[in-house]
Write a structure and sequence with these properties.
287 residues, mainly alpha, 11 helices
Length: 287
């Protein structure tokens, strides 16, 4: 298959891979499972995998880029901003549930469930919007659904909590995609929407960190003052931000099927289990 814009596509794949691995490292090796404090940077349709710290970093970098004139953001209409807030709430659900699931499931398993969100968008297009859907697309979506549904049956390390949060993540991703599709005629650009998502996430997750117990729980985290933990969190925030920018850029210069091809290539690059199974015994961290 011929893929246009190889530089932009390869950059997207690189940041996609790096973002997933660094987040899996923090969640599974360092075991920093306080999602209202850590997780937060996620791109549309991609889940991800981060929350308060990453949304704070992503929002700050996007705001600085806007003020420096590197990107264009125009959230001038208060009514449109308020109308987008339900989608921002779903964005928080995506990243919160995604972080919970990713901390318990291998990346290939998580991505298989994540990809099944296409069932929701495809079903909405066919049964609600009455759009013509090709037989190939229907078969592809059904294959994704069957693959995700069979995972719990054949998973020798079945984790009910992990699959529960993966299911919540799947639903949030699917509904978010539907809302985004309905908003294509809006004056809010992808960056506008992401900026609102960042601000909403930082405010909501910061206020939720104390009731959820994450704030005081994080103070007892054994690697709180270790440089590898600090550097991993910084890398996670930066990678999530650059992944978001490259996703927006790639979508703007390629067709939908070309973007889907690049996305498939990125996900296929992290499918080997030996690259994703972070074992607890690797948890020997030095200053």
């Amino acid at each position: 298959m011929y893929l246009k814009r190889p530089a932009a596509g390869l950059s997207f794949c690189l940041f996609y891979l790096a973002s997933y691995f660094i987040n899996k490292y923090v969640l599974s090796v360092l075991k920093f499972t306080y999602p209202t404090l850590f997780q937060g940077v996620c791109v549309r349709g991609v889940c991800r995998r981060q929350i308060w710290w990453q949304t704070l970093v992503g929002g700050f970098l996007l705001h600085v880029s806007w003020k420096l004139g590197w990107v264009e953001i125009s959230c001038s209409s208060r009514s449109e901003v308020l109308t987008w807030l339900p989608a921002s709430a779903l964005f928080v659900g995506i990243i919160y549930a995604g972080s919970r699931a990713l901390s318990r499931l291998p990346i290939p398993v998580f991505l298989t469930v994540h990809n099944a969100a296409e069932v929701i968008t495809c079903g909405f297009q066919k049964f609600v919007q009455k759009e013509q859907t090709s037989l190939l697309k229907i078969c592809s979506v059904l294959f994704l659904l069957i693959a995700a549904g069979c995972l719990p049956l054949f998973d020798t390390q079945f984790d009910p909590d992990g699959y529960f949060w993966a299911l919540i993540h799947l639903i949030c991703v699917g509904v978010y995609k539907v809302i985004h599709k309905l908003w294509k005629t809006s004056s809010l650009s992808d960056l506008d929407q992401q900026y609102i998502n960042y601000v909403f996430s930082v405010v909501l997750l910061a206020s939720a960190s104390h009731p959820a117990g994450d704030l005081f729980g994080a103070l007892n985290f054994p690697f709180l003052y270790f440089y590898r933990f600090h550097s991993s969190c910084c890398a996670s925030g930066l990678l999530g931000f650059f992944l978001m920018l490259h996703t927006v850029k790639l979508k703007s210069i390629t067709s939908s099927w070309q973007y889907a091809a690049w996305s498939f290539l990125a996900k296929d690059g992290i499918s080997p289990d030996y690259l994703t199974d972070f074992k607890p015994e690797q948890n020997h961290i030095s200053h």
